[in-house]
From TrEMBL:
It comes from Novosphingobium album. It comes from the Bacteria. This is Nucleotidyltransferase family protein. Keywords: Nucleotidyltransferase, Transferase. Residues 11-152 form the Nucleotidyl transferase domain. InterPro entries: GlmU-like (IPR050065), NTP_transferase_dom (IPR005835), Nucleotide-diphossugar_trans (IPR029044). Transmembrane segments: none annotated. Gene3D superfamilies: Spore Coat Polysaccharide Biosynthesis Protein SpsA, Chain A. The keyword Transport does not apply.
């Protein structure tokens, strides 16, 4: 796909979580350092950023922060990695972005550190950049339909209207799209944010009410790797693809 350049040259990687569902593998290491298909999950994300041409990354740390910060420091690829330190207090996804905002341009990519995915015809950062419109959007979410969400057993997260605006799943119903953990975020989304720890859902809800939360469907595969049991099938899928 040709056309628009990348929407940003910087990504925030959310890596401060406790990784409770991944125990016992996270008893002595943070979840982003758990290995899948021969390398840590955060390296899967960092390598994808480098391949896409995203030059800078900001990584937030909390649980076993020294190990994660040390890993990022010694990487020979994508050397421009800055740390947003949450050792004193875990700020959750929304609070983490707000704390890191002074290090982030407007807009920026944001992705979970435990994301594993295979690109479609174009990498996900190009997919998002092609659809990004800062005049209409506070955030643009990369969503995946159920058939391309490997290991996923949930009921989905969102609906998309014909213009790409996002609506939440209604209780008791199945929604066709799952959030991949990858998005473009405008600083406008972060305005008037709560202090301390809070979920990005707080900001998304406001953006939905204002008609400014959008989504785009991922054309490749996405893997939910939330538990130790998901690692082997993910590796088998990656070998097969």
């Amino acid at each position: 796909m040709t056309g628009k350049p990348l929407a940003s040259d910087t990504a925030m990687i959310l890596a401060a979580g406790l990784g409770k569902r991944m125990r016992p593998l996270t008893a002595a290491q943070p979840k982003p350092l758990v290995r899948v298909a021969g390398k840590s999950m955060i390296d899967h994300a960092l390598d994808k950023l480098e391949s896409a041409g995203v030059a800078h990354a900001v990584v937030n740390v909390h649980y076993l922060a020294d190990a994660l910060e040390g890993h990022c420091t010694v990487r020979s690829r994508l050397p421009d990695i800055r740390i947003s330190d949450e050792r004193d207090q875990l700020l959750e996804t929304g609070g983490g972005m707000v704390k890191a905002a002074p290090m982030l341009p407007d807009p920026f990519f944001c992705l979970n550190s435990d994301n594993i995915w295979l690109d479609g015809p174009n990498d996900v950062f190009k997919e998002l950049s092609q659809a990004w419109d800062p005049e209409r959007m506070d955030a643009l979410l990369l969503l995946v339909p159920h058939p391309r969400a490997m290991n996923y057993r949930g009921e989905g997260d969102f609906h998309l209207d014909p213009q790409g605006r996002v609506a939440r799943r209604k209780r008791g119903y199945v929604a066709p799209f799952i959030f991949t953990g990858i998005q473009i975020v405008s600083h406008r989304l972060l305005r008037d944010a709560p202090e301390g720890p809070f979920s990005t859902n707080v900001l998304w809800n406001r953006a939905i009410e204002e008609g400014r939360l959008y989504g785009v469907s991922h054309m490749g595969l996405w893997f939910e790797v939330g538990t130790p049991g998901a690692i082997k099938p993910t590796e088998e899928w990656m070998t097969r693809a």
